[in-house]
Amino acid sequence: xxxxxxxxxxxxxxxxxxxxxxxxxxxxxxxxxxxxxxxxxxxxxxxxxxxxxxxxxxxxxxxxxxxxxxxxxxxxxxxxxxxxxxxxxxxxxxxxxxxxxxxxxxxxxxxxxxxxxxxxxxxxxxxxxxxxxxxxxxxxxxxxxxxxxxxxxxxxxxxxxxxxxxxxxxxxxxxxxxxxxxxxxxxxxxxxx
Length: 193
Hints:
Layout: H1 3-25, E1 34-35, E2 38-39, H2 43-57, H3 78-104, H4 112-132, H5 139-156, H6 163-184
Antiparallel strand pairs: 1-2
Helix pairs in contact: 1-2, 3-4, 4-5, 5-6
């Protein structure tokens, strides 16, 4: 059983149920989800319900039954662990340099969207370096990097207040593609590459 799909499926279904109850009990003015000029607060519960059903239904598929003897113990490659540690240190250094630079530059000169784009590019750059060195990427920082870059671009474009929608869309896409990523072995602990 794929516990990750099961847990995320249940979380999505509970969130969809909570939003559905909120839609039924609250007035439309109290629950807003704007699509263009129209308030459509029923879209998030439907999207979450569909994602939850897909994840819940795929939690039993594709799992091979393994006994304790056939389970492979992960091996740790010390060279890759050291390389990953160096790359993470360099990424933290880039982040701190960027943070210090933004403290010197007034917000009127550089908009806030550039900050989000910079943070996202550092995270995505770290994972690209891992991929090129055949080290497993971090799903968490890849996900945050994508959300950060998209959010920064939208902020620079003057589209505000849709960060939550972008977060849900990217999260849903990641969860749908997660079985493929697991099969390819792209994400996981870097030391076990």
